[in-house]
Amino acid sequence: MNPVEIEEEISKLAEQPFDAQEFPFAFLEAFGRKQTEIKRLRAGSTNKSDLDGVLQRNHIHIKVCSEGAVSQTLVALKASAATAKFKARFILATDGQTLEAEDLASDDAPIACEYKDFPDHFGFFLPLAGISTVKQIRESSFDIKATGRLNRLYIELLKKNPDWGTADRRHDMNHFMARLIFLFFAEDTDILNGGNLFTATIEQMSTRDSSNTHEVISELFRAMDTPIKKRASAGLPRWADVFPYVNGGLFSGSTDVPQFTKIARSYLLNIGSLDWTKINPDIFGSMIQAVADDEERGSIGMHYTSVPNILKVLNPLFLDDLRQKLDEAGDNTRKLLNLRNRMAKIRVFDPACGSGNFLVIAYKEMRAIEAEINKRRGEEDRKSDIPLTNFRGIELRDFPAEIARLALIIAEYQCDVTYRGQKEALAEFLPLDAMNWITCGNALRLDWLSICPPTGTGVKMHGDDLFSTPLDQAQIDFENEGGETYICGNPPYQGSVNQKAAQKSDIKHVFEGIVSSYKDLDYVAAWFIRTAQYLKRVEGAAGIVATNSICQGEQVSMLWPFVFDQGLSITFAHTSFLWSNNASNNAGVTCAVIGLGTRAKRAIYAEETKRLVSSIGPYLVEGPNSVVRKASTPLNGLPRMVTGNLPSDGGNLILSESEKQKFSAENPEADKYLRKFVGSRELINGGDRWCLWIEDKDIEYAASIKFIADRLDKVMSSRQSSRGSQAQGGIATPHRFVFAPHKNGLAIAVPKVSSSRREYIPCRITDGFTVVSDLARIIYDAEMWNLALVASRLHLIWIATVCGKLKTDFRYSNTLGWNTFPVPALTGKNKADLTACAEDILLAREAHFPATIADLYDPETMPADLRAAHDRNDEVLERIYIGRRFKNDTERLEKLFEMYTEMTTSGTSTGSASKTKPKNRRLPKGEGTNA
Fold first, then answer.
1. What does pTM read for this prediction?
2. 381, exposed or middle or buried, with CB in 10 Å at 0-12, 13-18, 19+?
3. Mutual orientation of helices 23-30 and 3-15 as an angle, nearest 10°?
4. 217: left (phi over 0), alpha (psi -120 to 50) or beta
5. What is the pLDDT of residues 575-593, one digit of tens each?
6. Are the beta carbons of 57 and 95 closer than 8 angstroms?
């Protein structure tokens, strides 16, 4: 269940007559606990309460008590031995009149309220539904409640008026909803002439059967679009004439209203009864936009951008600087005035603004700073100098664009009430200004300079209204010459594989002609290109949320050289963190916040820490703007690592263990044509597969064996039907792999993809009887000290950074990771020490035979002797680099990038590939084919 559904169920429960015996079970059911769980609790088999209540292990201890005994009961629940023994997170006591509860796993204050009001606190209990939530959503029960009610109204109206859901009328429906939202807010904040005016008028003037509800609302819309001086000739009914003139285009144009059912009318009145003064425009906007999106409606209330995450962008981008200037100004009236004048010219521009979250938060934070300035200057009642029109956005869909404007209007009113008082706020709120500063369109196709121009000369045409003008260009006079522009936002991310045709076309439109290789870039990369082009002509800076993949792997070389060529640097970065929603199946995206600009002060943020640095590279670590590029041969003096062997056979050269057993039993003389075959899965998880491995000299005899002949015929057919050049080239030699670098002797194999949970890159020693597939990388004729490099923490950090990830897994690249890995020149002594470390790792593994790599390197169960062997290996290697252990991964990366820059600029190798004949040594069990 999502939060909206939970709120609705909890509200239904609170509205029903209180049933003391049923309440605990109904409460748990409302939070999505399974019927089988409820049934067992009712039967008593899983009820662990020692107070004649209901205790579900790991969740909650509930007790219904006699009237007036709620507080004492809560104390008893907290002291209960069962509460502690069975790890109840929540305790809850109620007598049907009042309700009290406490979260024993957090520092949040307990709740105490009238029973009928406990749905207002439903967010407090969301962990019962498995929902990882944040403080903001727990405190915004109104926003979730309002969103759910509006969603039900929207769906009911579309049932009655299906034509309003078509492409031709969807905009009309969305605009109608925007009007309702404004009216619900306006009637509860005295913006309309009298409290509850809109809802009360609908209730009084529309019939109970709802047959004329649409006509009544239409007349109200017409009244709010009629200036006072024209009212006499407009023929408005007396009950509509009391409504004020709103202007701003919100009620201009069509007054057509969808027809209502009795249920829809009931929903409308119910929504109007809510207290809309509690609306949080920064959260509400994100949730309400899902109402008008068929794809998102199923997850309504689950997607929003939390304020702390938004501030990860806005604070380092410009808000921290404004606050610092405020501190420096103290009570100096001249400095305070200069700061206020500067703020009045600042433009905040979100070219993927959605429902306006970033713009709303930026506006509210700037108003708070301005209010403090006015207070220090003794001008508390002063009208704000910060115009809403300085907060500009582009949004592809029309409904979020309207909600963004509405959210900013509401935010302005709320700020005026907070800092100037209700009277002053009301006096200046209506009529709304006829300006359109949120553009509806494709940000990757529009000219940003015309939408947010650098001076007051770029745009001179006023729009007729706020909401209904053509939205393909900016339409206000932008008179803030000399101001700074700050680009911010959270653009869509889609990776290249998941991009739709239109998005691929957008990528081509942005990149073609300026970047040669771009097709594998994430969609969000296009916003970085447009931002770089914009900031080359406009004074300002940017802070953008992006997938961290654009700072990893091959995407770095595609994107960042162009950005740096525009004269920009990375000025701040929040390194990888989960940008998540409050869904129970919290599938957050691993993101980074990246700041672009030209200022000298730079900072890297990781978790709750901030570190000032001299420069930030494209991998979001301190260092130069070095871009690691693929190298076909090692730059570091290390031995060559290649991709494993590719059969391209339609699976016909490969045998399972059972197929191998049958083949060997029927053709014992043909065993010599079989070898073990391993890829990433077998290297990590064990298990056996086999392959046919036939030398050219043996093909005549091998092909006389029916099983082999049948397999080779199928290989030939598979390659004939393939479009691949390698497969086509191997049609005449179906007994051979199309790519076969295999050599006899010991080799080091590294899986191409492996879990990022592991603390070390998995690798194994193989022998000549084992053929390693193309799902792994391999060093043939490998000396053992190379395994010490591959299995080190240093190498894992390098691979994780420069090769990137496939979802959450490491992608190992020989050309991008191994060939570029910076290694100091190694002496014979160094190699001997590293060889000993590698052997210790293998011996530690052997001690736990037959455990697999997956078993041994589970971070929670990794054997102590194996961990100690790796730790010794890391210490020996890191002392070779800097004479001591590195303090942390940040220091490791900084050293590696420093060495990479030296290696690529000097043109010389840092490592040593001198050959020494490897010793004859026993291959440990579990490595190669001796397992």
1. 0.78
2. exposed
3. 160
4. alpha
5. 877 665 433 333 456 789 9
6. no
